[in-house]
Design a protein that fits this description.
Oligomer: heterodimer
Number of strands of chain B: 11
Order of helices and strands of chain B: EEEEEEEEEEE
Radius of gyration of chain A: 13 Å
Distance between the termini of chain B: 31 Å
Helix content of chain B: under 10%
Strand content of chain B: over 45%
Low-confidence stretches of chain A: none
Shape of chain A: globular
Largest interface: A-B, 20 and 21 residues
Low-confidence stretches of chain B: none
Order of helices and strands of chain A: EEEEEEEEEEE
Radius of gyration of chain B: 14 Å
Distance between the termini of chain A: 37 Å
Largest sheet of chain A: 6 strands, mixed
Number of helices of chain A: 0
């Protein structure tokens, strides 16, 4: 079992819709969780950090964490074509472990 | 701009060459990292330096040699690479040791390496 799992996609949503990206992890002692956005040919950019169960909102982004079920998700409201990118989930287990990423396509 | 810079941005080298990648962080962080990103693969952690001491070496071949002369600078020395080493090499930094923002890693723009 991979330590951090994401559906590689592509996930395709129409402009203005909600995009839902999911991530599961295997290490129960993980304490901090991150979402990165990576445009093609660019480096990963940190967009959200979450440390406790529940929701954390920042603009159009909401991160959700459920430690009991070992999953973390990212919701993007009012998706824009500029949100089209690969989204990487990262889990801190003492070192940062990255998932393979989910490619999001937002169609105008 | 994340406050982490990398040079060069692109590098083409032959298998017998020796070259170095450079990373500099302007964030006051105390930990720095090298990652390798190949097509269709997750980010692979190569080396970790915390307070200028190497704390992680993820079974990386000896043809990759890191150097961290101080908390702001990190190098990756390359020699006798193989074509399969062609990838995007990313440097990152973070502040370790507690607080709400611990372990948030910020990446540089990367060096696109091609080994011919």
């Amino acid at each position: 079992q991979k330590e951090v799992e994401q559906n590689s996609g592509p996930l395709s949503v129409p402009e203005g819709a909600i995009a839902s990206l999911n991530c599961t992890y295997s290490d129960r002692v993980s304490q901090s969780f991150f979402w990165y956005r990576q445009y093609s040919g660019k480096s990963p950019e940190l967009i959200m950090s979450i440390y406790s169960n529940g929701d954390k909102e920042d603009g159009r982004f909401t991160a959700q964490l459920n430690k009991a079920s070992q999953y973390v998700s990212l919701l993007i409201r009012d998706s824009q074509p500029s949100d089209s990118a690969t989204y990487l989930c990262a889990v801190n287990t003492g070192k940062l472990i990255f998932g393979q990423g989910t490619t999001l396509q937002v169609k105008p | 701009e994340t406050g982490v810079t990398q040079t060069p941005r692109h590098l083409v080298m032959g298998m017998t060459n020796k070259k170095s990648l450079k990373c500099e962080q302007h964030l006051g962080h105390n930990a720095m990292y090298w990652y390798k990103q190949s097509a269709k693969k997750p980010l692979e952690l190569m080396f970790v330096y915390s307070l200028e001491e190497r704390v992680e070496n993820n079974s990386v071949p000896s043809r990759f040699s890191p150097e961290c002369p101080n908390s702001s600078h990190l190098f990756l020395h390359l020699h006798t690479l193989q074509p399969e080493d062609s990838a995007l090499y990313l440097c990152a930094s973070s502040q370790e040791g507690g607080g709400d923002y611990s372990y948030e890693q910020y990446f540089g723009p990367g060096t696109r390496l091609t080994v011919t």
